C-alpha cells in the first residue's frame, strides 16, 4: 500500500469515526440558545444528549451483524443516509420531544460510521499495524473537541442555531461521497450469517466470552469513560464554576484535547518498541495515580482552574495512549466476527460512557469533585478488570508484533 493511499484511507476512516463525536461537541455551546427557542430549560436539553448516547449505543449492536452479513459499505450507506435525514429533521425541530427523537435517529445513523470504520481497520490493515492505525484515527478524532465547540460558537454568534445541523448535514454528505468513490469494500458479504435474533445473540455471546476481548474491551471502555466524564462536565466546571466566557471555554476545551491527541501520537512511536500490552499496563497505573491525586485535591480544595486543567490534561494523556492499544488488543482475536466484535466494543464504550456521565449528577457538589470522583472510580475499575482479566487469557493474540500470532 502506497503512503498516499494509506494516508487517504486513514483520512476517510478518521472522518467516519469523528462524525458522531462532532455531532455531540458542535451543539454544546448552543444549549442555552436552543433551550430558549424551544421554551425549555438547559437541564431539559440534556435529554437530547441522553437520547443521542442511547441511540449510538444501541445502534452499534444493530450494525455489527449487518456489517458481517452484507459487507461493510451497504450498511454504511444506510447509516449515513439516515444520519442526513435525521439532521435535516433536527434543523426543522420546533419542540423538545421532536429534537430528542431526531437526535436519537441521528445517532442510530451516525454510529454506522463509527462501527464500520473500526471494523475496516481490522479488514484493511495487518494486525501488527492496528494499534498505530487506531492512534492515527484518534488524531483525526481529536480534531472534533478542538474544532466543534469553536465552530458551534461561531455559528450561533452569526446565524440561528439550526445552522449547526445544516453544517452537520453537509459534512455527512461529503463523507458519503468520499466513501462511495474512494473507500474500497473490505469484506465480502457472508450470506450464511444469520440475522435471526438467537444466532445474533449467540454470536455476541461468543465474542464477549473471548477472554482477551472481554478484558481489553471492558477495561478500555472504563478508561475511555474518563473522556466522556470530561466532555459531560467540562462546561459546568469551566463556565459554571470558574466563570470563563463561552469563547474562552472553546479554547480551553480544544487546548485540553491536545493532550488526548498528542498522547495518541506518542503511542504511535511507542508501539514500534513496546508491545501494546505493556503500554496499556503502564498507562493504566498512571491513570489511577493521576485520578487519585485529582480526587484528593478536589476533596481538599487544592486546585484552582490552572491545577484542574493540569489534572484533566494528565487524565486525557493516559486515555490517549491506552485507548488505541485497548482497541487493537480487543479486536486482534477476530477475523470473521470482526464487525460484531467492533460493534460490541463500541457499545460498551458508549454505555459505560453514558453511565459515567450520569454518575456526575449523583455527586451533590458544586466544585470539581463530581468530575474527579467519576474519573477516579472508572480508572480503578479499569485497573481491576485489566489485571484480573489477563489471568484468564490463555492464548493471547498480539496486536503489535511481527505478525499476528498466538502467545502462550
From TrEMBL:
Keywords: Cell membrane, Membrane, Transmembrane, Transmembrane helix, Transport. The chain crosses the membrane at residues 7-24, 44-64, 76-96, 102-121, 133-155, 161-183, 213-242, 248-267, 279-296, 302-322, 343-363, 369-388. The keyword Cytoplasm does not apply. GO terms for cellular component: plasma membrane. InterPro entries: Efflux_drug-R_Bcr/CmlA, MFS, MFS_dom, MFS_trans_sf. Residues 9-391 form the Major facilitator superfamily (MFS) profile domain. GO terms for molecular function: sodium:proton antiporter activity; xenobiotic transmembrane transporter activity. It comes from the Bacteria. This is Multidrug effflux MFS transporter. It comes from Mucilaginibacter ginsenosidivorax.
Amino acid at each position: 500500500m502506497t503512503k498516499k493511499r494509506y494516508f487517504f484511507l486513514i483520512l476517510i476512516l478518521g472522518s467516519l469515526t469523528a462524525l458522531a463525536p462532532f455531532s455531540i461537541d458542535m451543539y454544546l455551546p448552543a444549549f442555552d440558545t436552543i433551550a430558549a427557542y424551544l421554551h425549555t430549560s438547559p437541564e431539559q436539553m440534556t435529554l437530547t444528549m441522553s437520547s443521542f448516547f442511547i441511540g449510538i449505543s444501541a445502534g452499534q449492536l444493530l450494525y455489527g451483524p449487518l456489517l458481517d452479513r452484507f459487507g461493510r459499505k451497504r450498511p454504511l450507506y444506510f447509516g449515513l443516509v439516515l444520519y442526513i435525514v435525521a439532521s435535516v429533521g433536527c434543523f426543522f425541530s420546533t419542540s423538545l420531544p421532536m429534537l430528542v427523537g431526531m437526535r436519537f435517529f441521528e445517532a442510530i445513523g451516525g454510529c454506522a460510521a463509527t462501527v464500520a470504520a473500526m471494523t475496516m481497520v481490522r479488514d484493511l490493515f495487518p494486525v501488527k499495524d492496528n494499534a498505530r492505525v487506531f492512534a492515527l484515527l484518534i488524531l483525526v478524532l481529536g480534531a472534533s473537541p478542538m474544532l466543534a465547540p469553536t465552530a458551534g460558537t461561531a455559528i450561533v454568534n452569526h446565524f440561528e442555531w439550526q445552522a449547526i445541523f445544516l453544517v452537520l448535514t453537509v459534512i455527512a454528505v461529503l463523507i458519503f461521497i468520499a466513501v462511495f468513490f474512494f473507500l474500497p469494500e473490505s469484506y465480502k458479504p457472508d450470506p450464511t450469517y444469520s440475522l435471526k435474533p438467537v444466532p445474533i445473540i449467540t454470536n455476541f455471546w461468543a465474542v464477549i466470552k473471548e477472554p482477551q476481548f472481554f478484558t481489553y474491551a471492558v477495561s478500555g471502555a472504563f478508561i475511555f469513560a474518563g473522556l466522556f466524564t470530561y466532555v459531560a462536565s467540562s462546561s459546568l466546571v469551566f463556565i459554571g464554576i470558574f466563570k470563563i466566557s463561552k469563547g474562552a471555554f472553546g479554547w480551553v476545551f480544544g487546548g485540553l484535547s491536545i493532550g488526548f491527541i498528542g498522547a495518541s501520537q506518542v503511542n504511535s512511536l511507542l508501539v514500534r518498541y513496546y508491545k501494546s500490552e505493556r503500554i496499556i499496563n503502564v498507562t493504566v497505573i498512571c491513570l489511577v495515580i493521576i485520578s487519585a491525586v485529582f480526587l484528593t485535591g478536589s476533596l481538599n480544595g487544592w486546585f484552582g482552574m490552572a491545577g484542574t486543567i493540569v489534572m484533566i490534561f494528565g487524565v486525557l494523556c493516559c486515555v490517549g495512549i491506552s485507548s488505541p492499544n485497548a482497541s487493537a488488543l480487543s479486536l486482534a482475536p477476530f477475523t470473521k466476527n470482526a464487525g460484531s466484535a467492533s460493534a460490541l466494543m463500541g457499545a460498551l464504550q458508549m454505555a459505560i460512557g453514558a453511565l459515567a456521565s450520569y454518575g456526575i449528577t449523583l455527586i451533590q457538589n458544586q466544585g470539581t469533585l463530581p468530575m474527579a470522583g467519576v474519573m477516579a472510580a472508572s480508572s480503578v475499575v479499569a485497573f481491576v478488570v485489566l489485571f484480573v482479566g489477563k489471568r484468564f487469557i490463555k492464548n493471547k493474540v498480539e496486536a503489535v508484533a511481527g505478525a499476528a500470532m498466538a502467545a502462550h
